Structure formats: C-alpha cells, structure tokens
Amino acid sequence: MADLDEQMRRLRAELDELRSANQDRLGALRADLKTARHELQEMLESFRADFAADTDAGRAARRERIEAVRAEVRSLSDDVRALLASFRDELARSAAESRERRPEAAQEARRFVADLRGSVRSMKEDFARDRDKARNAAAEERRAFLDGVRSSVAEMIDTARTARRRRRERSAADAAPSDAPAPPDAEPRAEPTGAASDEEDAAAAADASPETDNLAEIQGIGPKMAFRLREAGIRTFGDMASRTADEIRDLMGGLPSFADVDSWIDQAATKARDQG
Fold this sequence. Notes:
Blueprint: H1 2-97, H2 102-175, H3 198-207, H4 223-231, H5 237-241, H6 245-252, H7 261-275
C-alpha cells in the first residue's frame, strides 16, 4: 500500500511537471506569434509607405508626360495651321490659274488630312501603351513585394515551429524517468497528448535509429520535411552533403520557393564533419 501511495505521488508530480512544461511552451508560442505579428505589421507599414511614394512619383511622371504630349500637340497644331494657311494660299493661286486642277488639289488635301489623322491616332496608341506598361510594372512590383512578405511569414512560422519542437524535446528529455525498472504492479504511464502529427511521431522514431541522423537539427527543416527527406532516401547528414540542390529538389518532387536547399547542404556538411 505504501508503494502504491508513493507511485501515485510520483505520478502526480510528473503530471504537475508536464502541465508546467505545457504552460511554458504555450507562453513561448504566444510570445513568438506576438513577435511575428509585430514584424508583419512593420512590413505592411513599410509597404504602404513605399506604395504611397511610388504612387506620388507615378503621378508626377504622368503629369510630366501629359504636359509633354500637350506641348507636342500645340506644336503640331501650329504646324498644321501654318500648313493649312500655306495650302489655302496655294489652292487659291492654283484656282486662279486653272480650275482644272481643283480635283487634284482636293485629293491632296484628303491625303494630308488622312495622314494627320493617322499621326494623331499613332500618338494616342503610343501614350496608351506607355500608360499600360507603367501600370503593369507597378503591379509586378506589388506582387513581388507581397510574395516576399508571404515567404518571410512562412519562414518565421517554420522557425517558431522548429523552436517549439526543440523545446518540447528538451522538456521531454528532462521529464524522462531514470533507467531503473519499474515495479511489476506499476501502472503504464499515459503518453502526453499534444499537437504532434503522425508524421512527426514517425520522424521521431526514425531519428532514434542508429542508421539515421536527426535532419530536423538543420535550420529550415522541420519534422515533416525531415520525414519526407528520409522517405526520399536522404537519411544522414552525409547523404544530404553529397548531393546538389537540384538533385534534392528532384528527389523531393518539388519544394517551397522559400526553401534554402543550399543552406541545408552546407549545414549538413558541417554536422557530418563534426560527427567524423
């Protein structure tokens, strides 16, 4: 009966330690999320400021182009008026000299008007193309900035998850019982429940094998990515260090755009040398 009471006290103490560890992990996760939210807010504020500056610069450039076009139109109008005045004088002289040349003069006037209309139409098309080009360039810059924001947020989330997993592993190692055998009548310990998925459990089991390395120790690789790498045949740091970034991407069948495979290979080479 005394042994049973001692076991119950030990189990209650372990349960209290697990609850305290879970509270610490939740507090750390909230702090990481608050930091990520603050950084995202700063990036959005920077984007708004840059977008406003680009908008003002674009408006100034459009005003300058419009003024240049207006100046060209005024200059063209003066030329047209001069040409029309010259044409009228020539037409009057031609009419006075010979009325037989009227049809020819009319045809020439039609050609001149048609050429003038074509010039104005070409000018409008050039202006529309320039405006569309500037609009598309601004849209591309916004899309590139937003892609960068998404990649940064995804990297921050992945880093927070890796840090949380490492804290969970350290806490589990600190809370693990000694190697002494348990009494025969001891009740089995209940496994702690958490947010780990089946792939994370499989990754932890594979990391315990002497034939594999814990690839999740590499910054940028989480438990799920480590599991996928082992499934693709990359089980040790030496396996990863002996391959190129393109080979790893081909083996994985595609990776996220923010995955820095070259950094993975460098870290794996360093860890392999440390092991050797």
